[in-house]
Amino acid sequence: MKDSAPTTPLTFPCTGCGGPMLFDSEGQNLKCQYCGNVQEIENSLEIPTEHDFDLSDTDDNDINLTDWGFEQQTIHCEKCGGESIIPELETATTCVFCGSPKVLAQVDKTSIRPETIISFRMSLDEALTSFRSWKKKRWFVPNAFKKGELVSHLKGIYIPYWTFDSMTSSSYSAERGDYHYRNETRTRVVDGKTETYTERVRYTVWHWVNGHYDDTFDDILVPASRRYDKGLLKKIGKFDLNQLKEYKPEYLSGFIAERYSVTRQDGWLTASEKIDNSIYGSIKGVIGGDEVRGLTVETNYYNRTYKHLLVPIWNANYIYRGKNFRYMVNGQTGLVSGEAPRSPWKITIFVLFCLIVIAIPLYFYTR
Ligand SMILES: [Zn+2]
Ligand SMILES: [Zn+2]
Question: Which of 21, 27, 89, 185 is deepest in the core (most CB within 10 A)?
Fold first, then answer.
């Protein structure tokens, strides 16, 4: 609950009391922070639009793509380069990523709107509870860290992804190798006597093959953010894309949407690498044989489309004995990944213990 009346105009004012309505992860609806009034979010189960994707199209200003359902502005951090999207009428005073106060609003910077979204399932309290039990299970961390309460500023952030669909048509040529066997007569010397014997020898017969291979790719997922530590992001696990919903601005109420820092074009490069690897594997399967060499593939991509989507994370920094640490909680599943302080002396004891375990048998052995 907020303790003071909002000073900035609201995107979703309560119809009952005028207070701010924020997305509620428990009810999956909008809830007034003052009077508890609840408003359902209409969500049709229509298949989200996939936009045609043309590599030469570097313009993100198409109005059909950039209507977020509210006037948005991009907040740029001068310190870390992070960009977030907030309603135009709101003001941001600090960077949500690094806490720096050097933030600038860039009203003219348009951003492609997400087609789909995975909404928050974990509330702030649930995310904190997940973190508390996570830190209790850490090894080699100071006891004071395990037991103590930490002040961490958790922020609910929607992070951006691209997904690409494409049909492909590939021509290939390669050499296919098939193993054959023949018996060869050889000689050897046994006990000073030369004798002949036969040995089964494998040889490979190569012949040229070429052909055509068609495939279809659906929802190749590529992160559109460079802001996060890849290791931390990986450890919060996967997001269940079966829970994707059609984008509605209400889902963003109370959260921050990060603006993509990977363009559609760069995202496609990553996606097409994944596609190419898959095509190579499939073509090798089609060619068959025991070995394939000199495979060249020429692929045309067509009916290429993309979608932009957002997934929820709780992101936090905390300070322990003057040092800064980060952690993250998956906003859908509650899985935690993070950095923790080390207890030098717990590590020393452990190392000594290991040395003793090795040393005792060694001592008896050498005696
Ligand atoms: Zn209200
Ligand atoms: Zn920053």
Answer: 21
The string of DSSP codes covering 305-332 is EEEEEEEEEEEEEEEETTEEEEEEEETT
User: Residue 1: what pLDDT?
Assistant: 39
The residue behind tokens 């603006």 is: 259
Percentage above 90 pLDDT, the chain: 40
d(CA 40, CA 15): 13
CATH of the domain at 105: 2.20.28.10
Distance 94 CA to ligand 2 centre (A): 8
- Per DSSP, the residues of 252-318 read GTTSEEEPPSS-HHHHHHHHHHHHHHHHHHHHHHHH-SSEEEEEEEEEEEEEEEEEEEEEEEEEEEE
Buried/exposed code over 183-192 (b: 16+ C-beta within 10 A; e: otherwise): eeeeeeeeee
Torsion region of 73: left, alpha or beta (phi above 0 gives left; psi -120 to 50 gives alpha)? beta
Instruction: Indicate whether 104 belongs to any domain.
Output: yes
Q: Ligand 2 centroid vs 194 CA: distance in angstroms?
A: 81
β-sheet bridge partners, residue 298: 171
Q: Which residue has the tokens 């109420």?
A: 253
Rounded Cα–Cα distance for residues 197 and 287 (Å): 37
Q: How many domains does the chain have?
A: 1
Strands 291-320, 116-117: pairing kind: parallel
pLDDT over 50 (residue 35): yes
Residues with CB under 5 A from ligand 2 (ion): 77, 79-80, 82, 95, 97-98, 100
Domain of residue 85, residue span: 69-110
**What is the 107 CA–ligand 1 centroid distance (Å)?**
30
Does residue 216 lie in a domain region?
no
The pLDDT value recorded for residue 168 is: 97
Which ligand minimizes its atom distance to the CA of 227? 2
Query: In angstroms, rounded to a whole number, what is the distance separating the alpha carbons of residues 182 and 205?
Result: 12
Q: Is residue 76 part of a domain?
A: yes
Selection from 257, 183, 274 nearest residue 221 by Cα: 274
Least confident segment among 64-68, 100-104, 187-191, 332-336 = 64-68
Q: How many CA atoms lie within 13 A of 356 on its CB side?
A: 6
Q: Please, which residues have CB within 8 angstroms of residue 206's CB and are 6 or more apart in sequence? A: 175, 176, 177, 293
pLDDT at 61: 67
Q: Is the residue at 241 inside a domain? A: no
